[in-house]
Amino acid sequence: MTVPFSEGGIVRIPTGAIVVTVGAPGAGKSSWVARNFDPEQVLALDEFRRIVAGSDTDMDVGVEALDLLLAALDSRARRQITTVVDGQFTDPVARRRVLEVAARHGRPATAVCFVVSPEVAEARIARAQRWLSPRVLRRHVELVDEFCLQHPNEGWAEVTFLGDDDEEKLPVVRVALPASLPFDGPFDVIGDVHGCLAELDALLDRLGYAPPDEAGARRHPAGRLPVFVGDFADRGPDSAGVFRRVLAMHDAAALLAVPGNHCLKLLRWLEGKPVDLAHGLGSTVEQLAAAGPELQARVRAFLVSLPRVLVLAGGRLVVFHAALALHRVGRADQATLAQTAWGIVRGTDEYGLPVRDTRWTATWKTGPDEPFAVYGHSPVRAPLRLANTLDLDGGCCFGGYLAAYRWPEDELVCVPALRAYAESPKVDWRGCPPHLG
């Protein structure tokens, strides 16, 4: 598909795609890439020239630099990592080699072509205090013109042309999310329950769910669907009871959920693997052991079935447990899976507890058409919005609150914990969130 000249707006690329810039020197490629992508997403041909020859302006090592870049691209494509290949790529042979990598790993390849006049390119090169032969520059411009004519024959999944000579007016990029599950809502996204069955039932009452049926399932009369951010058990008084409630709703196709880090630790125990029984897991193990093998088997099957990330409502709502940069949605590498369950840690505090790194939230841009992310894992005194994300973990087991986010209404519903079931060394959870008094 060809996207015509863009004047502002948004360019969307598929998750796991290979994006290649095509344009003459001074066309604004690298500036546009730097504004729209994180450094970890970019393979810049100039950087590989520097690796090979010690200088990013040494044109004599172009083939060797491209060989190294393609080796890195091959590894990333195999892992389905969204990658931007930043360079001129006016040479059709170089573009063909990139397309071969994309085809080998079944990755969509998108070309973003920068079409500017030689005069604009010359002015930008001069402002950057660089020099390029006018003859060489004009040859690159001619090759860009040839690409504009020949690109339908090259095999690109999509080609976007950017022709505005004002760099600040060029479109921004958003990574298109993977295919959404066939659920459009409305949803009630529920924070970390941690064994607090009484509070969970109180929250479902406030949300308007019917009393439990004979099997223990609770349904909403208007068809609302609860979505749990994980960590059903540990620390609270009735982890087995929470699982019975959740399993009944799951069996009735009346909920969606993702697993949290406590879920994964419990799963290790259920699979007979060694695991540390700290942080409330020991109590959960005792309750499930007393309940017998049937409940244990059902809990295990349930946890195994859960996806790490839920993409809902056509990509407008994304739910995970702990942390996930937008461009990692759809990836299944170990680093991404670890982030969804355990978050990103940048050290420990004076209590020896992990300090959560929330910089990933900045990848979720605000706007009416942007996906909204909801998660838990990190207890907060009141539901916390950062960029286009929401942390729902109310520290219920510590005496805080249990929260739900009603989508698409953009409303919060909270119930206070009946009491503190576990100690929190650095936060006094009484009276949280503040509006609960």
Model description:
It is a single chain. With 437 residues, the chain is α/β, with parallel strands linked by helices. The chain has helices at 29-36, 45-53, 62-78, 92-104, 118-127, 134-150, 197-206, 239-251, 261-270, 281-291, 293-305, 334-342, and strands at residues 2-6, 10-14, 18-23, 42-44, 83-86, 109-114, 158-162, 172-176, 187-190, 225-228, 256-257, 310-312, 317-319, 345-348, 354-356, 372-375, 384-386, 389-391, 401-407, 411-416. The chain has two domains: 2-176, Rossmann fold, CATH 3.40.50.300; 187-436, Purple Acid Phosphatase, chain A, domain 2 (4-Layer Sandwich). Helices cover 32% and strands 19% of the residues. The chain has a six-stranded parallel beta sheet, sandwiched between helices. A five-stranded mixed beta sheet has the order 11-10-9-19-20, with helices on one face. A hairpin with a 5-residue loop joins strand 14 and strand 15. Helix 9 packs across helix 11.
Order of strands in the sheet with most strands: 1-7-6-3-5-4
Mean pLDDT: 88
CATH class of the largest domain: Alpha Beta
- The tally of structural domains comes to 2
Unreliable stretches covering 5 or more consecutive residues: 1-8
Based on helices, strands and strand pairing, what is the structural class? alpha/beta
Q: What is the element layout, followed by pairings?
A:
Layout: E1 2-6, E2 10-14, E3 18-23, H1 29-36, E4 42-44, H2 45-53, H3 62-78, E5 83-86, H4 92-104, E6 109-114, H5 118-127, H6 134-150, E7 158-162, E8 172-176, E9 187-190, H7 197-206, E10 225-228, H8 239-251, E11 256-257, H9 261-270, H10 281-291, H11 293-305, E12 310-312, E13 317-319, H12 334-342, E14 345-348, E15 354-356, E16 372-375, E17 384-386, E18 389-391, E19 401-407, E20 411-416
Helix pairs in contact: 2-3, 3-4, 8-11, 9-11
